[in-house]
Amino acid sequence: MKAFIRDTALTLTAVSTAVALAACGSGAENDPDGENTPTIGLLLPDATTARWETQDRPLLEKKIKELCDDCTVEHANAKGDVATQQEQMDSMITKGVDALVLVPVDARSLGPTVRKAHEADIPVIAYDRLAEGPISGYVSFDGEEVGRLQGRALLTAMGNKVPDAQIVMMNGDLSDPNAVAFKKGALSVLKGRVKIGKAYDTLDWRAETAHMNMSGAISALGVANIDGVYAANDGLAAGSISALKANKVNPLPPVTGQDAELGAVRRIVGGDQYMTVYKPFGPEASAGGAMAVAAARGENLDRIATGTVRTPGAEAVPAVMLTPLSVTVANIEDTLVKDGVYTIQQICTPRLGAACDKAGLT
To answer: Does the keyword Disulfide bond apply (predicted)?
Structure first.
């Protein structure tokens, strides 16, 4: 664990240094006319996953303003609709924004629009999800490692039931390249170690779809025959847990998650969810904001990047890849609370008083 934290710290230090470099030379002095006022478009995919509007958007906007106080940020949320996001992106291209930060609803479908931006000399920074087409930079976390963390945690939670354990896999929407990576990483750990009784790929990452699918899995497998649930994110975990409770499953099997949503953290403290994957939003937004500002100014992104990544078109682009962290009840205070994501007061509602005391969250 100490080695893991050390590696994470080194990565974050590299990103912090790169962000500081991006701030150097910023401002109107770079424009001989003193009119360097870039516009950056921020295109988010949905309002279903809480992190986009509550964490990523404000952090990105804050970092962009820190690095470029006269930059304008234009924000749009596609609310899970590909056609809407294409229209939003087309609108920003028409307006002539200086750079785009894109979290694609569907990477493949957005590929032609990314190419249109490229042809209009508008650099596209793919944020959190790798986009298809000629992007200029990429900021995210190691998606396969996310899946591996979830798979390992699930095996640990099921303990001596392995290798006879049977699980349900509640994967994300496979039009999202991250969902593909999560699933691949999880299967690399779980395949051959447990029986996968049912597996679902969840369109639009909808919790209500996860609820419906979990109800179907319970009917098919039997209440007593589900030893664990691989849920790719916290929304799918919530839907799965609600279905398990509705079907009187007691005790609940261990359920994984991702995104460290407040509701999920409370479920972990209360014993309904076993773990979540924490992807520190601050460093990701810092790197994304630094890349967006540099791209808008026509600067080289290599000085911000910590490496490169291959796009679906096999082109190597500058990238910042960060390390995710597994969170269980045992390390909430040392991760989420320590990083200022949530306070103990936010996590520990009156209903969770006894559970918080037991977990040492006081």
So the answer is: no
Give the list of residues 6+ apart from residue 225 with CB closer than 8 angstroms, or none. 166, 197
Structure tokens, 80: 């899970």
What three-state secondary structure class fits 19? helix
C-alpha to C-alpha distance for 44 and 42, rounded to whole angstroms: 6
In a domain, 190, yes or no: yes
Contacts 24+ apart (CB under 8 A), 350-353: 351/270, 352/266, 352/269, 352/270
pLDDT of residue 63: 97
Count of domains for the chain: 2
Q: Are residues 114 and 169 in the same domain?
A: no
Pair (202, 344) in one structural domain: yes
Helix (H) or strand (E) holding 43: strand 39-44
3-state secondary structure of 158: helix
Work out the end-to-end distance of the chain between its first and last CA atoms, rounded to an integer number of angstroms. Answer: 24
Q: Which domain holds residue 93?
A: 2-135+280-323
Query: How far is the C-alpha of 233 from the C-alpha of 236, rounded, in Å?
Result: 6
CATH number at residue 170: 3.40.50.2300
d(CA 312, CA 135): 11
248 has a pLDDT exceeding 80:
yes
Is 361 contained in some domain?
no
Let me know if residue 336 belongs to a domain: yes
Q: Are 272 and 252 in contact (CB under 8 A)?
A: yes
Say whether pLDDT at 200 is over 50. yes
Question: Distance between CA 280 and CA 62 in Å, rounded?
Answer: 16
C-beta neighbour count of 286 within 10 angstroms: 27
Short-list 174, 157, 175, 177, CA closest to 165: 157
Residues in the chain, total: 362
Dist. CA 204–CA 21, nearest whole Å? 38
Q: Give the lowest-confidence range in 114-128, 205-219, 234-248, 300-314.
A: 300-314
117 and 179 in a common domain: no
DSSP 30: G
